Amino acid sequence: MKARVRFAKTKVKREIKAKIALHRRSNNKTFANRARRAAINAMKLKIAKKPLSQLSVAEKERVERLIAKRKKAIDRIALKLTPRVKQIERDRLTHRTTQ
Length: 99
Description:
The chain is mainly α.
């Protein structure tokens, strides 16, 4: 209950900060996290061979176990995806400034 009240109190402040953050360029750590998340999602889709929403709980757990074992591969894929993630943000920011 306390967390709900705290979140309600800071809702406006969080929304304003999120809006400001959308106008600023992200740092390298954020780019790396986004690329890693994209790499994990790509690997999950490759392992599952169908949309993740259609998997049963047991299948999702199996996929998660396989993902945990392939940490090195995910790191390599994330490294390759980082330029693409940066390009997506660059396009978003240039689109905002040209309007």
